[in-house]
Amino acid sequence: MSAEHVTVYSRPGCPFCMSLRAGLQGSGLAFEEVDIWQDPEAAGVVRSIADGNETVPTVVIGDWQAVNPSTRQVLAAVAEHAPHLLPA
C-alpha cells in the first residue's frame, strides 16, 4: 500500500525543521507540515514515534517514519514507499 502524502511534524523556531523544510521545498516535493504545538494529536503521534519525546522534525510516509531525517533520507523513502509523490 503506497502513501498518499508526506507529513512533516514540526514546531516554530526549530532549526532542524527549517533546514528540512528548505531542502524539501528546494527538491519540489509536496508535503504537509503539522505544527505539534498547535495540534495536540500531532504531538501524540510524534511522541509515539520518538520514544515519548516531542523530537522534530518527524516525518511519516505511509508506514515509514523517521525522527530528524535528512532531505536525502526523506526523498529516498518517498522513492521507495510512494514514488508517485516524487516531483516530475
Structural class: alpha+beta
Strand order of the largest sheet: 2-1-3-4
User: Any idea what the radius of gyration is?
Assistant: 12 Å
User: Based on DSSP secondary structure assignment, what is the total number of beta strands?
Assistant: 4
Strand content: 15-25%
What's the story with the biggest beta sheet?
A: 4 strands, mixed
* C-alpha end-to-end distance: 21 Å
Q: Estimate the mean pLDDT confidence.
A: 95
Low-confidence stretches: none
Order of helices and strands: EHEHEEH
| Percentage of residues assigned to helices | 25-40%
Concise description?
The protein is of the alpha+beta class. It is 39% helix and 19% strand. The chain is globular and about 35 Å long.
List keywords for this structure.
about 90 residues, alpha+beta, 3 helices, about 40% helix, Glutaredoxin domain-containing protein, Glutaredoxin, Grx-like_ET, Glutaredoxin_subgr
